[in-house]
Amino acid sequence: MQIFEQIAALRTQIGDWKAQGLSIGFVPTMGNLHDGHLSLVKMARERCDKVVASIFVNPLQFGPNEDFERYPRTFEDDCLKLQLASTDALFYPTVAEMYPHPQTQTRVVVADDITVVFEGATRPGHFDGVATVVSKLFNIVQPDIAIFGQKDFQQFAVIERMVEDLAMPITLIRAPIARDVDGLALSSRNQYLDAKQRQIAPKLYVALHDIAQALSSGNRNFSDLEKAATEQLLREGFNQVDYIRVVDPQTLAPASVDQREFAILAVARLGSTRLLDNILITAA
Ligand code: AMP
After folding, report:
1. Residue 218's domain spans which residues?
2. Tens of pLDDT along the chain (284 residues)?
3. Best residue among 30, 35, 40 to mutate for probing ligand 1, ranked by most atoms within 8 Å of CB
4. How many domains does the chain have?
5. CA-proximal residue: ligand 1, atom 14 (nearest)
6. For ligand 1, what atom is nearest to the CA of residue 148?
7. Does residue 61 line the site of ligand 1, with CB under 6 A?
8. Alpha helices for the chain (secondary structure H)
9. Domain boundary among 175, 201, 217
10. Is 152 in the pocket of ligand 1 (CB under 6 A)?
């Protein structure tokens, strides 16, 4: 695996591959890789001739009181994992390489309807940071396909909207959520949990699963289901439920009784750790 810290050098390599007619699959990450990230690399490997991954902890998408400084950085380990997963190139830029004008960086702002709800409501500016870094990475890598996880459901919706609105010539793939054996969605932030919190954490998936089952068996009392799940999670030891909502998977607007596809989105807190999860279902 070749490692590139500079945009120009990566561009030269990608230009060579493109000149040979090879297809490029791209997996952007913030590092601290786990099996969820590697499942994305595997999907890229199966679909493309060359796989490019990136590791960049993007300051633009962190708020002032968030965990940018303490976000886990495990570069050596990550390299080994990417190499074992047959990644061809890793882009590992510095902040200065990505943002030459830190105070006056040009930004990509995706429409409010999907960026100020849910994660955007508690993390103002987060999705502008995501859209900006992803569009810059797309310009650098120029992939044929880019793979993102369903884990960050809203993030995928935002990137999908950006790609459509700006006519970016890239096919997006949404990869299923990789979970631990007890159902907890894999996340770099799970390591912030202490032993007791780690035991409680999988109940978030159980709560989502209960709602999914109710929807599958015809229940459409969305707000009752959401309220019951919230109470259940608080009883089980979560200290806060930011949201648990049944929504339209395309628009993220509240679900209506006549639709068949639902996304159930949730964020709940254990201590200061926010756990994010979702289930996508098609009801009969
Ligand atoms: P991150 O490093 O957290 O920015 O994540 C990089 C990519 O991996 C994003 O597209 C995430 O949605 C995806 N991802 C993170 N966790 C999982 C998971 N448990 N299963 C599948 N994809 C994931």
Report:
1. 188-279
2. 999 999 999 999 999 999 999 999 999 999 999 999 999 999 999 999 999 999 999 999 999 989 899 999 999 999 999 999 999 999 999 999 999 998 899 999 999 999 999 999 999 999 999 999 999 999 999 999 999 999 999 999 999 999 999 999 999 999 999 999 999 999 999 999 999 999 999 999 999 999 999 999 999 999 999 999 999 999 999 999 999 999 999 899 999 999 999 999 999 999 999 999 999 999 87
3. 40
4. 2
5. 149
6. 10
7. no
8. 7-19, 35-47, 75-84, 95-98, 112-115, 119-122, 126-141, 153-165, 195-200, 203-216, 222-236
9. 175
10. yes
Q: Which of 34, 119, 152, 174 has most ligand 1 atoms within 8 Å of its beta carbon, as the pocket-test mutant?
A: 152
- Residue 178 alpha carbon to ligand 1 centre in Å: 9
Q: Are residues 215 and 156 in the same domain?
A: no
54 and 150 share a domain? yes
Pair 117, 252: CB distance under 8 Å: yes
CA atoms within 13 A on the CB side of 232: 18
* Ligand 1 in reach of 138 Cβ (< 6 A): no
Specify the CATH number for the domain of residue 199.
Answer: 3.30.1300.10
Model pTM score: 0.97
Asked whether residue 64 is assigned to any structural domain, the reply reads yes
The CA distance from 261 to 283, in Å, is 6
